[in-house]
Amino acid sequence: MPSRFVRAPRTVGVATAIAEAKERGATPHLLDGAEMTTSAAAFEAISRALEFPEGFGHHLDALYDHLTDLSWLSPGEHVLIWSKPSVLRKIDATAYDGLGSALSDAATDGTKGDATLTVIMLDN
Questions:
Q1: Between helices 39-49 and 60-67, what is the axis angle to 10°?
Q2: Of the chain's two ends, which shows fewer C-beta atoms within 10 Å, N or C?
């Protein structure tokens, strides 16, 4: 499956997004937006969720580069599920916009290897 970015309808929750990913054989990675109250916290949460290698430089260019590589992950589709994105949007709209753009651009541009990225932003 090619990489993609999806803004899920309000009716889709975390459990549904995880179940749908698993049904198609993808590996879900949960990004808990409740803990993402700053851009630094967001970079850390994404890095943890996708098990970024050591040396990740916590800025948007490095994030994009890592998201379009994923060579450290197993082959197949990896689904980054961002729950509660409204937390960061309310606290720091600029950080929210930057992260959303980096995630969207990376998913749209695709990955270089056998691992693909799908980003699902839940509307909750």
A1: 20
A2: N
